[in-house]
Specification:
The complex is a heterodimer of chains A (515) and B (355). With 515 residues, chain A is of the alpha/beta class. Chain A is built from 18 helices and 23 strands. In chain A, the strands form five sheets. In chain A, strands 13, 16, 19, 20, 21, 22 and 23 form a seven-stranded mixed β-sheet that branches. In chain A, strands 6-7-8-3-9-10 form a six-stranded mixed β-sheet. In chain A, strands 2-1-4-5 form a four-stranded antiparallel β-sheet, with helices on one face. The longest helix of chain A is centred in the middle third of the chain and has 16 residues. The radius of gyration of chain A is 25 Å and the shape is globular. Chain A starts with 7 loop residues before the first strand and ends with a helix. The longest helix of chain B has 30 residues. The chains are: A alpha/beta (515), B mainly alpha (355).
């Protein structure tokens, strides 16, 4: 390979970080050159976050060094353990969860922290001119003078990127930047990243969407188990090889037999949920989810899928219209009633709604069914029986944990989700609500969740899948409906839809208009 | 540099060690002001230990003082586990005491095996109902139970004073504001003749054991733990969050009410407005020292009671103010709160500048 002529801007050499017996980073070398877009791939726990935290001075490496080019292009070591030093050296990061002050405007957010606390007036014209220039160069258009809370997620992300550019970064790290975007917004972000790289910015792109990585990045670095297992140009790589590098073994292709739908299990007719002024609400929605099929709901978060999930989960009742499960009309908010009606509910946030961290794995396993005769006799908990069944579920669902008596908060996200899946699916529910079931999970755990949902469908359950991940929706759904601003589109046959059409519908264009 | 790494599980021995360590640290810290007064520190602590447990009589006195603290400690422990911040155990104690004299001082004549349970149930109910009101307000309107229960303490105490100056005043008490004495049939038996130690202690220990079994082994105990640890997830799972909270209110208020019954029917024999020197508030300290464990409440109450009884005795002997006891308890509370860090986190020393 001939040497890259572009100047080096960032060089990590032999970075090693140990947490007790765990080696989170094992002698990782990484060079990034000006104008390069480098993908950083790896499963949860592969060491990406640790490496970036070392770069930012949140952790100090046990071994190895970080050097970064100074203004003259000379490489100088970056002192460890200082976030200020990293920022001053020109490293900027856009986190997956934005760090914006929601009540301030975009302009205020961008200049926040760049001026002395003692200055009375915010920097005016100079700052404006600089931001205007950055917007023109990068193609990032956004209204700077409204409070950030009123901007869409995509617009907030542009503010975040501008914030980094305003600080004259030379290395920009984007952490899962497309996770929250529609396909169109993701395309526009890719164009921006390309424009910025063309001007000499070095970009580190952290993502798990392999097709994006292949399309956007010139080089891909793969971490697995704390070590660098690949550092290669994207040219000539394909998704299967990258996935195999990340997981360390071939990832089985999903098997999805054709659907044989039966009678509707969940049936909504003109259903409205939530107060009219509320952002996440549902207006006059019609939807049938039949036994033996998976219906996917696409949409940018906060457009009404939360209200739909709340209705099915029993946290909310319908304000008007008629919602039925197996023909039985749903009365108001009644989570226990939904459990009794054989609805299996996988909540969006497993830490907040799905599990109780201080309780054990076994206790979380029976959270919904503690009053069943199998779990109690005369009000006394049948501890041995519960432990035995939890142990069996741990085995069947391959939950990696010390045992049924371990506090569930000690488990990784993927294993926690497996406990939730076991709780939900062991009862053989008629209807499964899967709300963002793979959020934050690695490839292995994600494929496991998908397999389980398809198995539930094969058993004859109706599955309502709400996800922001279009790849996931297209991989699993038989039919897809799109929710935008409280309005639910008809569920269309997934085979006849493509990602671009759904993306336009997510942005508020009708199906006919999009086609 | 020091880092705090969250622990997945807290071993039981560590919780116990932290509680005992906190007591030791508290005594050590108290030695500083004690030395500043010029008192002989070692002698003072020896006198305190002797005063608290030096002989049978001293030990009995400590156990007597611990009895109401076990009840109010349990009241706080069960409430705080469910994140119901009941600061009103003092008021609930007085409500229980009031019910004890109302039922036990002559209104009903019955043999002891009828009257005694009746008095205890009545006292527990009085405390329970008093707490149920703020709990229902919390469930229904989101009213802050800290404020409501705290203010109810003053209302109840003023109400007790009113009753003792008025309708319940004992005509035979030479004008003192106190109630008529409870009947013999409504008096808890003394455990040892001649000492003040009474049957309330047995009831208190029984209550601690029953509460432990209830919390760890029953469906409702499970629901209470689930609601206390994560009410959102409990609600999502379909657990009856409101009912669990109401049950916690009844239990906590009832236990505090029993503290009042035990003091009146076991120790004082009649009700005065200075029945409790703050047992309700001290219960919060006891529960915290016990790490909210019902069984842990017993040793924690013994520690606090021992400190108070011992300090009284010491102050009589060498003339150091018995406020020293408050100091020990306050230091112990602070030490336990700091020690809580050790139970929730592992402390890891990180070498600086290794990069």
């Amino acid at each position: 390979m001939h040497p890259d002529p572009r100047p080096l801007v960032l060089s990590l050499a032999g970075i090693t970080k140990r947490f007790g017996p765990l080696t989170a980073n094992d002698h990782i070398d990484l060079d990034v050159r000006a104008g390069e877009i480098v993908a950083l791939l790896g499963e949860n726990g592969a060491g990406k976050t640790t490496l970036m935290s070392i770069l930012f001075g949140h952790y100090i490496a046990d071994e190895g060094s970080v050097s970064i080019a100074d203004a003259q292009g000379r490489m100088a070591p970056l002192p460890g353990g200082s976030a200020q030093a990293a920022l001053a050296a020109g490293i900027g990061m856009v986190h997956q969860h934005f760090a914006l002050a929601e009540n301030l405007t975009g302009f205020e957010n961008i200049v926040l922290g760049t001026q002395s606390l003692w200055s009375l007036r915010p920097r005016g014209r100079g700052a404006r001119a600089k931001i205007a220039r950055l917007m023109a160069e990068s193609g990032l258009a956004v209204d700077l003078d409204v409070p950030v809370a009123r901007l869409s997620v995509g617009e907030q992300q542009r503010i975040e990127i501008l914030k980094a550019l305003y600080r004259d970064v030379r290395v920009l790290i984007l952490d899962e930047p497309t996770a929250v975007l529609t396909p169109q917004e993701a395309d526009s972000l890719a164009a921006t990243v390309r424009a910025l790289a063309a001007r000499g910015l070095a970009v580190i792109f952290i993502s798990h969407k392999l097709h994006e990585v292949l399309a956007l990045c010139g080089r891909v670095v793969v971490l697995r188990g704390g070590a660098k297992v690949a550092d290669r140009p994207t040219a000539g790589a394909d998704r299967a090889t990258l996935a195999e590098l990340m997981v360390g073994r071939p990832v089985p292709a999903r098997e999805r037999p054709p659907a044989t739908p039966g009678a509707p299990v969940l049936s909504l007719k003109g259903v409205s949920v939530g107060k009219p002024g509320q952002r996440d609400r549902l207006e006059n929605a019609d939807l049938d989810v039949r036994a033996g099929e998976i219906v996917g709901i696409a949409g940018v978060s906060g457009n009404g899928q939360g209200a739909l999930a709340a209705l099915v989960a029993g946290l909310a009742g319908a304000r008007s219209g008629e919602a039925r499960i197996d023909g039985v009309r749903l009365a108001g908010a009644d989570p226990a009633g939904r459990v009794a009606a054989h609805v299996g509910r996988i909540p969006e946030d497993r830490h907040r709604d799905g599990t109780i961290g201080a309780l054990t794995v076994a206790e979380n396993f029976v959270l919904e069914t503690i009053s069943d005769p199998a779990n109690q006799r005369a009000g006394l908990i049948r501890r041995a029986a519960i432990r035995a069944r939890a142990a069996a579920a741990i085995e069947a669902y391959d939950v990696r944990c010390p045992g049924p008596d371990a506090a569930i908060r000690a488990l990784s996200g993927g294993n926690m989700q497996k406990v939730v899946l076991a709780r939900v699916l062991e009862r053989e529910p008629r209807l499964v609500l899967a709300h963002q079931p793979t959020r934050g999970l690695d490839i292995g755990a994600t494929s496991d969740v998908h397999r389980r949902l398809i198995a539930a469908r094969g058993r004859g359950a109706a599955v309502l899948l709400i996800s922001e991940d279009l790849d996931e929706l297209f991989a699993l759904s038989d039919r897809i409906a799109v929710v935008h601003a409280g309005h639910l589109s008809p569920a269309l046959d997934a085979a006849g839809l493509d990602v671009r059409t759904v993306g336009l519908m997510m942005a508020g264009h009708g199906a006919g208009e999009a086609a | 540099m020091i880092r705090f790494v969250p622990r997945a599980r807290t071993p039981v021995w560590l919780s116990v060690a932290v509680s005992i360590g906190a007591g030791v640290v508290a005594l050590a810290l108290t030695a500083i002001p004690l030395a500043l007064t010029g008192a002989p520190v070692f002698t003072a602590f020896m006198l305190m230990a002797q005063g608290a447990a030096g002989n049978g009589f001293a030990l009995a006195e400590t156990l007597t003082r611990a009895t109401p603290l076990i009840f109010t400690g349990l009241a706080a422990a069960v409430a705080f586990r469910a994140k119901l911040w009941n600061i009103g155990a003092e008021g609930q104690l007085y409500a229980g005491a009031l019910a004890t004299v109302a039922l036990g001082a002559g209104m009903i004549e019955a043999p002891p095996y009828v009257l005694m349970p009746l008095v205890l149930v009545g006292a527990a109910l009085a405390g329970a109902v008093l707490l149920l009101v703020p709990v229902l307000f919390k469930i229904r309107f989101g009213a802050d139970e800290v404020v409501v229960t705290l203010l109810l303490n003053f209302i109840v105490l003023l109400f007790v004073q009113m009753m003792l100056e008025g309708p319940m005043k004992d005509e035979m008490a030479l004008g003192w504001p106190q109630s008529a004495p409870v009947l013999d049939e409504a008096t808890l038996p003394k455990l040892v003749t001649g000492w003040r130690l009474h049957g309330g202690l047995v009831l208190a220990i029984l209550a601690a054991v029953l509460l432990h079994v209830f919390i760890t082994r029953t469906v409702w105990g499970f629901r209470i733990r689930a609601v206390g640890e994560n009410a959102r997830a409990a609600r999502y799972a379909g657990l009856p969050v409101g009912k669990a909270m109401a049950l916690v209110g009844l239990l906590s208020g009832g236990l505090a009410g029993l503290a009042g019954a035990s003091e009146v029917a076991g120790l004082k024999g009649y009700l005065t407005a200075d029945l409790s020197p703050g047992f309700g508030y001290a219960g919060i300290v006891v529960a915290t020292l016990a790490n909210l464990s019902p069984l842990g409440v017993i040793p924690a109450a013994l520690f606090v009671a021992g400190v108070f009884v011992g300090a009284d005795s010491m102050s009589r002997a060498i003339g150091v103010s018995n406020y020293l006891a408050d100091l020990v308890v306050a230091f112990a509370l602070l030490s336990v709160l700091v020690g809580g860090l050790l139970t929730r986190f592992r402390i890891v020393l990180v070498r600086r500048g290794a990069a």
